[in-house]
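Dear support,

I submitted the protein below through the web form. The confirmation email said the job was done, but the results page showed an empty box. After a refresh the structure appeared. I'm attaching both so you can tell me whether what I see now is the final result or a partial one.
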Amino acid sequence: MAQLLAAHYERHQPERTLLYQVVQKHYPIFRTQLEDEGRPLPGYVQREFDDFLRCGILEHGFLRVRCDHCHFERLIAFSCKRRGFCPSCGVRRMVEASALLVDAVLPEQPIRQWVLSVPYPLRFLFASQPKVMGKVLGIVYRTIARHLLKTAGYRTTKAQTGAVTLIQRFGSALNLNIHFHMLFLDGVYAEDRHGVSRFFRVKAPSHAELIALAHQLSHRVGRYLERQGLLSRDLENAYLAFDLDESNPMPHLQSSSIQYRIAMGSQQGRKAFQLQTVAAAHAENASSVSSFVAKVSGFSLHAGVCAQADERKKLEQLCRYITRPAISEKRLSLTGQGHVRIQLKTPYRDGTTHVVLEPLEFMAHFPVHHPSGDLWSCKSAILPICHC
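What the results page shows now:
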């Protein structure tokens, strides 16, 4: 009760944040420059920027909320409800989605997180063709599910498992990094000898099993892409084979973001400037987590995080992590030269802790994080508007 009474509504003021100020100042320049090059931003990306600049601003619309008892009033600004890069709407969606998963979707059984990262060319392919990404996700799910069923000693017709997948499109440096976060039941449901459905847990995957699974995924995904005519092989290499629209700026922006390269301006094509302020990680430090990670042909499969059946708080924290927004305003700052400095969530192995981008280059990372469709339909949380 004390926590409920202590809750209060505090209006978000985006116009005071660094992110809003950078977008407000440089978005018109960014859009005009692409138009001058004959590659205008797609309409859905322009709407994302325009709605972000109106999100939380009272002059663009608000609700007047009044308490019937004390007659106290608040003004609540409209939000954009976009899914691209708005931190405010992203955090609200993160809280709602994680609560939905824990309260209404995931059963009180052990849940293991499986994370699959794919090679750079496939990140570009998935960003360009989301339907192909959906088919590949089906291959990944079936491969891991069959492994769990086999480990439990059941056939696919005799037992079932399940998973919830969140597709993240971003890395710590705002680079385009499409990867799958899959919350799998750490076991299977099957009937016991009395015909009663029960949950049977499986042991954690060994490093050898992860290596074998990564090989299977690499082979099956490659075979599917070959059948679709999207992947060609010769004696030594494999390469993507599909046409791109040269008037569309998205492929260029996506490719540059994936490779940490500058997409616009006089430095175009060069690597983004990185600050290395800590010592590089030693091989012995990395060996402690190597047993939970398998890397094969550019695929990386991780399965080292598990929440037990009674660890619902840990599970909710895990759900919040995989549903978090792309941009954290707390990790943004300006340099003395007016460049945007992004602090990495975790330092890279070479000691890199920050990435520094010119404002226009910083803007070039935003369009690539715009997903298509919507995943969640949640009701907003209700907060008290007064203290009466």
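Response: this is the final, complete result; the empty box was a page-load delay. DSSP finds eleven helices and 16 strands in the chain.
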